[in-house]
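Hi F.,

I've been meaning to write this up properly since the lab meeting, where we talked about keeping a consistent format for the predictions we share between groups. The idea is simple: the sequence comes first, exactly as it goes in, then the structure tokens exactly as they come out, then a line or two of notes. No screenshots and no reformatting. I'm using this chain as the first example so we have something concrete to point to.
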Amino acid sequence: MIVPETLEQIANSTASLGALNEHALATLKQTWPDLRFTFCNDDDMPARLPPVLRCENFNLYLVNGSEHCLSLTDDPRQAIGVVLAWVDEE
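Output, unedited:
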């Protein structure tokens, strides 16, 4: 479960780090060791599920781990992690 306050804190921390890279991921994992984190380009995310939080340069999606395979969810009660998806400036 990821409460909205934690999601906001993750977004704020990510924004303050300036870039989505291995260093940023390591920092987030150290701050929230019980959550899974990954990053990608927002263009790689499926259009069927909108982000749970839109930020200026990136979007946040939730990861569900209740099944045998990881999947995306919009339900924070099922979330065990966050995908940070960088938005390309065009």
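Notes:
The chain has one domain: 4-86.
The chain has a mean pLDDT of 94.

If this format works for you, I'll send the rest the same way.

G.
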